[in-house]
Amino acid sequence: MHFLITGHTGFKGAWLSLILRQRGHLVSGISLKPEVGSLFARAEIGKFLENDIRCDIRELSKLNPYFTDMNPDVVIHLAAQALVRESYKNPFDTFETNVMGTLNVLKASQEITNIKAQLIITTDKVYKNVNKASGYIETEALGGQDPYSASKAMADIAAQSWLTSFENPPTAIARAGNVIGGGDARADRLIPDLIHSYSSGMTPKLRAPNSVRPWQHVLDCLNGYLILIDRVLDGTADGAWNFGPNENQSKTVADVANMAGAVWGVENSWEKDLGAHPHEASMLMLNSNKARTKLGWSDKLSFEESVDWTINWYKNVKNGSDPLEETLKNIREFDTK
Fold first, then answer.
1. Measured between alpha carbons, how far is 315 from 323 in angstroms, rounded to an integer?
2. d(C-alpha 176, C-alpha 65), whole Å
3. Which residues are bridge partners to 26 per DSSP?
4. Among 31, 64, 38, 111, residue whose Cα is nearest residue 327
């Protein structure tokens, strides 16, 4: 089967490309250029792809011909401006990419003659956040205070509107976030910032050490996406689905930093950043019972395993291991669980 991934040069996109290739599928990608030091670049993932295209999803006139020429069986839309603090710096780019970019992908997919399923990825931050401790379910109100969260909520609502208003291929929406794993190179994310500090002999500074997030290994998240796609393909699933960890994996930022520091082998795993920072939610939790009961999906990795696998990926690569082989090793071990 031929999969087309938007945002394939990003963190989740790179892992997803390798998983699909390991399962024998053809993979094509449309994305901006990869980040310096990204998994996509370090593991040379482009050489495994049928098509490795650089295109801004905001440009529908360029996007359409690529979609029709590749004519994939499945489209997975991951491309996004995915950082909260970046959305404060460049709000218009964030809204254009996340809202209009998503609509452009949906429009381009309508032109594909071979398409059998489509998955639109939004985020756990689409929900109107009222610091709900029990986790948000798929039918709760969407909203967002910061530009990133608002743009993704708008993209989710726009996608739902598009799917109910026009003829489309079978489509589902997946909501997840705070995934960790080896190879993430984006500054202003917790794990890359921790690794950069540890590697430089510095003590990481945490903006909000007490903030609670649903931490999840990237392989658990992507496994949920692929199970959902299988159900979309067989006609038994559509609509919105949460993919978040068990409640005992919703830990604070400090919890992650403490364990990461222990695995890396540093004494001072973090200190409080006393600077002024824009608003970010203090608590965010997902209720994923729908996916667990109706899809049979569940996490394979505990919180401790997720952090351990992640930090050891960086340690092993720093000590000379091949980034591609480290990633494939994680995929193989995950598949045996």
1. 11
2. 30
3. 2
4. 38
Distances in Å between the Cα of 7 and the Cα atoms of 32, 75, 169, 304 are 7, 11, 20, 28
Residue 4 burial by Cβ neighbours in a 10 Å radius (0-12, 13-18, 19+): buried
Length of the chain: 337
Q: What is the DSSP string of 197-247?
A: HHHTT---EES-TT-EEE-EEHHHHHHHHHHHHHHHHTTS--EEEE----G
Contacts for 286 with CB less than 8 Å, ≥ 6 apart: 124, 135, 136, 175, 176, 177, 214, 242, 243, 244
Counting beta carbons within 10 angstroms of the beta carbon of residue 89, is it exposed (0 to 12), middle (13 to 18) or buried (19 or more)? exposed
* 20, two tokens: 């699909």
pLDDT in tens, 214-255: 899 999 999 999 999 999 999 999 999 999 998 777 789 999
Place of tokens 């011909």: 65
CB 250 within 8 A of CB 116: no
Please report which confidence band the pLDDT of residue 279 belongs to, taking 50, 70 and 90 as the band edges: low
DSSP string of 2-40, one letter each residue: EEEEETTTSHHHHHHHHHHHHTT-EEEEEESPPPTT-HH
